[in-house]
Specification:
Blueprint (H helix, E strand, L loop, with lengths): L18 H4 L8 H8 L10 H17 L4 E4 L9 E4 L1
Antiparallel strand pairs: 1-2
Helix pairs in contact: 2-3
Length: 87
């Protein structure tokens, strides 16, 4: 349900960071780790499923929007996620 603007004290511009500002050039990350880093959360942090899903909802479109900045490495096994890094 919508809320009045006056209910909020802190309104900020909506902007995404560039991949180079989020990821280290010499590392590859899973989409889960990237999702955490985008929100300033430790990439190894344990999160509940609902929080993880919200973070992924932000990370996946961000990665698609910046797809030209990434390289992809196959996962070690079929049931594991792939790895992404800076091109």
């Amino acid at each position: 349900m919508p809320k009045p603007r006056d209910d909020f004290d802190d309104l900020r511009e909506f902007e995404f960071r560039e991949p180079e500002a989020v990821l280290e050039r010499d590392s590859l990350y899973t989409v889960y780790e990237i999702a955490r880093l985008l929100q300033g959360v430790d990439p190894g942090a344990e999160l509940d499923v609902e929080t993880e899903e919200v973070l992924l909802d932000w990370a996946i479109p961000w990665m698609l929007d910046h797809s030209g900045a990434f390289v992809f490495a196959e996962p070690d096994a079929d049931d594991e996620p792939g790895y992404y890094g800076l091109r």
